[in-house]
Amino acid sequence: MDDTLIKREFPQEPGLIYLNHAAVAPWPARTREAVRRFADENVHTGAKNYLQWLQQETELRRQLQELINAPSAADIALLKNTSEALSVVACGLDWQRGDNVVSTAEEFPSNRIPWQAQQRHGVILKEIDIRVADPEQALLAACDARTRVLAVSAVQYGSGIRLDLATLGRYCRDRDILFCVDAIQSIGAMIMDVQAIRADFVMADGHKWMLGPEGIALFYSRPEARDRLQLRQFGWHMVKDTDFARRDWEVARSARRFECGSPNMLGIHALSASLSLLADVGMPEIQRRVLDNTAHLFESLGDIRGIRFLTPVAEAHHAGIVNFTIDAVDLSRVHHDLLQRQVICVYRGGGLRFSPHFYNSAEDITKTVEILNIII
Q1: One-character DSSP codes across 63-91
Q2: Does the predicted model carry a pTM greater than 0.70?
């Protein structure tokens, strides 16, 4: 890949090393320009070109379809965030008392609270420890005849554990268990194929590894699974025929049924621009670079006395996150000192979390570890 592309798209301030893509990512330069153009257009001509905006919305659905290998753009809904998409699933199912949901004990609240909220229907949430030799088998062993949903993150936000989604999805499909994947820590960093993993639902906000803004999210639903969800919110945008004068209406057959009102046009323009960069680079190359950066982190950090990795070192079980602790070291102080030295990271999940993207260089990693050694 041409490094001039990286310099052009990420003109970050001198000395800054951004290793926090698992939280909120910087925008590429092309995304800034897309937002500027959209803002200028609003100032000068308002919604004069709204039909062109709708074309941009259509293009974003196509980009997302391609990014996750969905069968159709009609399977893509544009929602506000991951939490909303998970709530659409959790609140849309026809629960029976005694049903259960199997998940991990490490989920971000977005993928825990919507399931916990179903306790009022007598639903049991099983939270499974996956810090074991075979996390997939631990999850599957917890499933039983009353399991309705297996809800997991593709990559855990804290520990960085990456699950074998294909194994989980195959098990669920064979047993008519709905497979729901929170992919916010995966899409944009790792290749995602919703058909290969047999996912029923996949959701991810755009502001992390997809390098987009907050407030717009992908929600994929397999048609057969989509039909099993009852709608809990309604509005003009989710109907089949958008003739405003009609008094009768029918729910859209596509995933647009989950979009009850006006689209986030600003977010649509921004995320579309960000995804165009991922497409230009190519997800195979992006995944290779992300894994190279995490491998470099593991190797460079491994020489620090007292370090303990919370993230699995085996490549099959990690993605872009490396989380660790250091014996007898106050990591909250270390985190503060790293920020003061322009290394942007976070103290999360019981350790110090680095999350480099494809555009971070080997020199970024080396310099970060040098600074860390000075601080501790």
Answers
A1: HHHHHHT-S-GGGEEEES-HHHHHHHHHH
A2: yes
